[in-house]
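haha ok so turns out i had the wrong file open the whole time. this is the CORRECT one, sorry everyone. sequence first:
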Amino acid sequence: MRPLSLTMTAFGPFPGTETVDFDKFGDAPLFLINGPTGSGKTTILDAICFALYGQTTGDEREGSQMRCDLAPAETLAEVSLTFELAGQHYRIRRVPEQQKPKLRGEGTTSHSTEAQLWSLNSAGEEQLIVARKVKDATAEIENRTGLNADQFRQVMVLPQGKFRQLLMADSKDREQIFGQLFQTQVYKKLEDNLKAQSAEIRREVQKFEHVQVGILEGSELDSPQALVEELTSLKPECEEALKSKDIKNKELVDNSNKLLKANAVLVSFENLAEAEAQQQQLADKKNAIDVHRDQLKQAEQAQKIKPEFEQIARNQQALSEAKGKLKKAIQQQGDCKTAFEEAGKTNNAAEQKRGQLDASKQQLTRLESYHERSEQLAQAQAALRKVETEESAAKENASKAELSLKTSINDRDKSQGLQQDIQRELSTLSDKQLQLKGLEDQLADKVTLQGLQHQVDQAEKNLEQAKEQGKKLSDEHKALETNTKTLELAWHQGQAAILALDLNTGQPCPVCGSSEHPQPAHSEQILPTELELEQARTDQQQAADKLTSARENYASLNSHVKSLQTQYDQAVAKLGDAANQPIAQLQQQHDTVKQDVAKLLKQQRQLIELEESINGLKASEEQARTALDEATKHRSEITAQLATANSGVSAAEQELPEEYRQTGALQAAIVKAQNTISVAEQQIKQARESYDLASAAWQAAKATEQAAIETQERAEVLLKQADDAWSAVLQASCFEIQQDYINAGFSEADFKTLQQGIAEYDAECQRVRGSLDQQQKTLDGQQKPDLAEFEAAKQIAEQEKREAEESWLVLDKRLTALQNTEKKLAEAKADCKALEDEYKVIGTLSDVANGQTGDKVSLQRFVLSVLLDDVLLEASQRLNMMSKGRYQLLRKEDRSKGNKASGLDLEVEDAYTGKVRPVATLSGGESFMAALAMALGLSDVVQAYAGGIRLDTLFIDEGFGSLDPESLDLAVRTLIDLQASGRMVGVISHVPDLKEQMSQRLDVIAGREGSSIRLVAG
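then structure:
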């Protein structure tokens, strides 16, 4: 990185704008920054470091403290740096946090930090990389330079009082700096990857070892040999038990079939009794059903004559409607007659107006003869009015154009002011968005943390329950095991007593063969049976299986709890202090910041619209100026046309009577005469038409009245015919009087219900008769079976089958468990062997790469130690020259005590004493020479390595005052040599000899009004 131009405004002791053009010193200059104490020499380096990283060189002053107190309150403190990096030019601008006057009212407001970064092409055109975000700009600088702020200060700037930092750094700090400079992070990643793989393989091996022990413990086995022995003995026992189970199962099936057949016969007897009972119930309902049949027959007869009965009602309704229509027709005929008489009177009056109509037509003819002269006058007057209107419009347009111009100017000024206000408000948008993103991440992590906390609590609760359950099952297993051993002991002891019961004097003992039995064995307690003993063993085995399952479940839960706790701890570590903050508080902060961001985004959109509006207002302003000029010119032209139009109107008025000269007067008279004629003709026509219509309506009303009389007469005849027809039908039916017909009628729903009930009864009778015949045929010659006998036989078979199955299940379950155990052991052993082989390779590589063997030097530190040797070789040459052959720097190869990192520590060899001692023993001047030599050597080596960081510039702040004149001369000669290699070197010093030896200077001039900078180029 090489600075090209630095501009400072209201920064440090500089109240105005100061620009340092480093290009004027040449391509690879050596220059002195000179000035009295407190004038601002170090501030130049602070400005470069602040522009790049937002921090000063000493990191003792914050950016907010760098504003010049002598600068005007409205001047914004800022720094801009143009620099070259790997052949590419960049410009960065930073503004520190500061107070500034409010735009409205009194007091100040806070101006937030901001930063912009641009890349420059060969033509000097800028392309924006970072718009405002400070963190983004810093990240881009670190990414492009390959250095953070601390590393920049250690390798490119030797700050005042801190030049010993790189020299005195320990192996760990130097490893971080050199790793960044030489880009050796790939070796560190290799170390970490090998270490992680090795640890993962070790965990997997330990896991498989625990799995093997757990597998054996789960089956209550001490060793794999015990597993083989038990499998050998258990297989034939299990096969024999399976055969016995199959036999007992077949016997149970036979007895079950016999019981099913007996149940079927018994059910048939029950069905026969039920059919007989149903037949009796149907016989009891027969009389009621017969009554329903008679009712249904009468209802069917009533349904047949129903149309004749309903016809009477329809004819009665028709007669009533005919009487109503006749009454209405009589009324309408009277009304029409009255209207006809009135229309006759109106028609006679209209005929008397024909004389007035002829006079109006004669007047219209006279007025129309003036029409041509009136048109000439109207044209002249219209031309005059048009010119007058145009003259007024031209005057108004000129006024409007002038007003529009003033309005556009005012609107543009207001919009530009509002634009500046919004731009200042938007300076905080990037920080607010970054804050919002952080709060959203914290909220998500907090929700995850709460979920993990709930899972941990629940898992610990389940673990505790599993522990209690395991303890309970262990106690039950121990109790059952003790009981089984007690029963086995009692059973074995009781066998002798059972044999003793069958001993007779003189007969040999089946055990010892003696014919004498002086003390036969006997038992004072009830002896257990083999079934009780076997049941006790089964209960013990089941308890053992439950205990094994509980242990496996506990181990699984315990592993799950540890995994959840690890996730919880990681989530707490990720959240930091926010882990203890209530989620409601975080949510409130998030909502507040979100509202601020939304408001700022809205202002951002408003700013875009405002910029478009300003451009539009500028265009409107130009249009308004053009319109004003055109309106003024047009008004002059219209004034000349006005005089010509006035003379034309005067000439036309001489040709027309005075009462018709007024515009529209003649036409109004013509229209009035035409209206009078039209009204009269219309009145005569309407009167005649009304008379004709009234006459036709009266004739139609009389015809309607006659038709209504005839309709009523026909309705009376039809009603008499319907009454006669009903009397004849009723007399021929089964009903004596009309009331009997009405009583026999049913609604449609009741009729269907009655009909359906009879049909269902008939169907039920048929079904019961068929069922009764079927059951009697099925049970012909059979007796009721005794189910108790069949059920007893089945229960005995079930008990025997259950006992045989339980015996087989116990053996088969144990055999299956042992076979699974054998399979799991084989799989675990194979997996463990593969992991052990893999660990022999990965583990060894990890130990070597991470410095766990030999001198405890890691792979990256070994690579860096080789690079450090190259740096020290270059540095020692310069230090040897500056110290007049006394000192050279060496890398300490002895291992540090304990676990402290080693391999990159420094020592100094003293040629005067012939001994090697720590660099901390050097004096102040010697330390400065060693640090300078170290920085120069590091610069040379880094430049030489492809892919390394480019160190094109070195700034040295003080330190030369600790050197004697001869050492100072040697140090300057070293800097001149460095300059010759193509690097920029800037020196800050009070030493007068340096001012004489360096022709190129930056003189910092101090005064009561602040400092200023003057460039002196040799």
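The first helix runs from residue 41 to 53.
again sry for the mixup
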